[in-house]
Input
Amino acid sequence: MAQISNSKSNEPRGFDVGNFVNRFGTVLALIVIFVLFSVLSSFQGGRFLTSQNLINILRQVATLAIVASGLTIAVAAGEFDLSVGQVASLTGILMAGLIVRQELPWGVAAIGALGTGMLAGLITGMLVTRFKIPSLITTLGMGLIAVGVNYAYARGDSIYGRMPEEYTFIGTGTIGPIPFVVIVSAAVVAVLYVFLNYTRTGRYILATGGNPTATRLSGININKYRLIALMISGFCAAMGGSILVSYLGSAQPSGADNYAMDSLAAVFIGMTTIRRGQANILGTIVGVLILGIINNGLNLVGAPFFLQTIVKGSVLILAVSLAVRREEIRFF
Output
């Protein structure tokens, strides 16, 4: 009798549809949105479902994917970084200014811009860990500081000028049919995914965000990993701002400000799938693609700009509210 009981308990369980929908509902929503715009576009010439447009979507979201993936690391550590947009704008201005005004090699300018992003993350991390100032407040202040430095350097003007071809290739070049920026973005996302999930530092970051008290009691220096996470977020914001300038060929003082809200939206949408309730790179990419497809699809069907922002905000509120109701995400 015991053997029969064991054999039954070891039998594979049937496919749990409810659990699958709960875990991958956001991915299914991405597919539904994609199909919806494919159908709507078919009534207006079918421009959405073309290889050229699909590649264009990937190009449009590539930079956002880098910034949002960096922000994912910060949120995984239990911290917010609301300064990523302003830091990206500042580093873009610095990148263009160092090349055009100071006539420095673009590699040197990139080191300066990326270093500025990491410095912003370092200062934020020190204020959060040493002075116990909530990251929500600290990063709001850091964003304002970045805006001030930005306007002090650029005097509120856009920076135009001849950029080295090697630099502009990052944003505008292609390898075969694939934009080079998409390849760069995929590489950065892959590195961050491996870092967060398969390295000791990444696992400690996840533990810090998941249960800081238990993590601290186990002997792990949670302040160290919060600091690392915020520095990575600043670095990725700087990379996004620098790549945006290589694509546009110029820098505007507020050119990347919208990355802050778009990145937060992508991260929180991503927390409703794959690893529900936890910031994760794959979920963030799903969120990035949802936002990118919505923007592109609404443009192709002729929707006004204000409708795009309303839809993006509604998607964010809906996704997070559903997760909060299921107690997958808590903000207190």
